[in-house]
């Protein structure tokens, strides 16, 4: 016979999906509750949730807020010459 | 600089900008796309736009900021079209990570990480590894990640822009993050 806990127990696959679904959509009350129960009981998904949030921070920082001045300069002489040639067609 | 500007001949002015800024623009594009060829194309396109819309520049802003604004638009356009062109492959399998009972496969089970938290991106070696892991993502997912994190805007707005359902979009993000997580664990956190 299924207990209440069984009904509320997610699989690891579903739990990890819900963790990342929150990036775009709000979870329902039931989903939030189920996720909370699961991550309390499951060490792997508890770690996944922590790491997924860390990845969000890293991705946000890496993709959106990097400063031009912090990027190492790559010299590309061929590109420079090619562009100059293209915008001065007669030369 | 500004007095050198000859509005009758934008090519002359822009040639001087190419000499001054093309390396900065290229470095930025390379950082954003992790692909030399794409970065070169984007910088070339940027200067073509600059030539064609030189009359809109009118010395209002600093040329470098103006060129960077054009380049950043080009980068976003690149990811948008890249994403649109590759949406045919709809099925996203998670079998690599989960068994038939939907448990983590033993070798895929997330292990605790020893993290020096938010300062980790200040470590150049980590950043290098992080970029390598990003490059291993299929282009389609890489584009999705870029579009999601470029500004911290709510994802639903992006979905409308690129024509995908929110469910499909978060599934792609989820799949991409599973792979990224695994890659970082294998190459950084496990050692």
How many runs of DSSP E, i.e. beta strands of chain A?
0
Q: Rg of chain A to the nearest angstrom? A: 24 Å
Q: How many domains make up the 3D coordinates of chain B? A: 2
- N-to-C terminal Cα separation of chain B, in Å? 52 Å
Strand content of chain B: under 5%
| Shape field of chain A | rod-shaped
Estimated structural class of chain A: mainly alpha
Mean pLDDT of chain A: 87
Provide the CATH topology of the largest domain in chain B: Arc Repressor Mutant, subunit A
Task: Compute the CA-based radius of gyration of chain B.
Answer: 21 Å
Low-confidence stretches of chain A: none
Topology (elements, then pairings):
The complex is a heterodimer of chains A (91) and B (191).
Chain A: H1 4-8, H2 12-21, H3 29-41, H4 43-64, H5 77-87
Chain B: H1 10-33, H2 36-52, H3 54-57, H4 63-85, H5 124-135, H6 139-149, H7 155-162, H8 166-189
Helix pairs in contact in B: 1-2, 1-4, 2-4, 4-6, 5-8, 6-8
Q: What would your notes on this structure say?
A:
The complex is a heterodimer of chains A (91) and B (191). With 91 residues, chain A is mostly helical. Chain A has one domain (4-69). Chain A contains five helices and no strands. In chain A, α2 (12-21) packs parallel to α4 and α3 (29-41) crosses α4. With 191 residues, chain B is mainly α. Chain B has two domains: 2-77, RNA polymerase sigma factor, region 2, helix turn helix motif (Rna Polymerase Sigma Factor, Chain: A); 106-189, Arc Repressor Mutant, subunit A (Orthogonal Bundle), CATH 1.10.10. Chain B has eight helices and no strands. The longest helix of chain B is centred in the first third of the chain and has 24 residues, at 10-33. Residues 1-6 of chain B have low confidence and may be disordered.
Please name the defining characteristics of this protein.
heterodimer; A: 91 residues; mainly alpha; rod-shaped; B: 191 residues; Rna Polymerase Sigma Factor, Chain: A; Arc Repressor Mutant, subunit A; 2 domains
């Amino acid at each position: 016979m299924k207990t209440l806990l069984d009904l509320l127990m997610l699989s690891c696959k579903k739990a990890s999906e819900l963790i990342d679904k929150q990036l775009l959509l709000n979870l329902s009350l039931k989903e939030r509750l189920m996720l909370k129960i699961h991550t309390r009981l499951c060490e792997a998904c508890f770690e996944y949730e922590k790491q997924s949030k860390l990845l969000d921070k890293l991705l946000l920082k890496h993709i959106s807020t990097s400063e031009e001045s912090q990027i190492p300069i790559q010299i590309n002489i061929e590109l420079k010459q090619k562009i100059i040639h293209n915008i001065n067609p007669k030369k | 600089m500004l007095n050198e500007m000859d509005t009758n001949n934008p090519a002359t002015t822009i040639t001087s900008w190419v000499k001054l800024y093309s390396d900065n623009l290229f470095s930025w594009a390379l950082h954003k796309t992790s692909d030399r060829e794409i970065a070169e194309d984007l910088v070339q396109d940027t200067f073509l736009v600059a030539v064609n819309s030189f009359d809109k520049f009118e010395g209002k802003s600093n040329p470098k900021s103006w060129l960077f604004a054009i380049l950043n638009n080009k980068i976003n356009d690149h990811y948008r079209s890249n994403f649109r062109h590759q949406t045919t492959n709809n099925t996203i399998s998670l079998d690599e990570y989960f068994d038939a009972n939907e448990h983590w496969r033993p070798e895929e089970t997330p292990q605790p990480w020893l993290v020096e938290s938010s300062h980790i991106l200040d470590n150049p070696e980590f950043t290098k590894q992080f970029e390598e892991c990003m490059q291993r993502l299929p282009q389609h997912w890489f584009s999705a990640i870029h579009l999601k994190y470029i500004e911290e805007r709510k994802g639903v707005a992006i979905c409308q822009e690129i024509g995908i359902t929110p469910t499909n979009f978060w599934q792609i993000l989820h799949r991409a993050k599973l792979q990224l997580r695994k890659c970082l664990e294998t190459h950084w956190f496990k050692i």
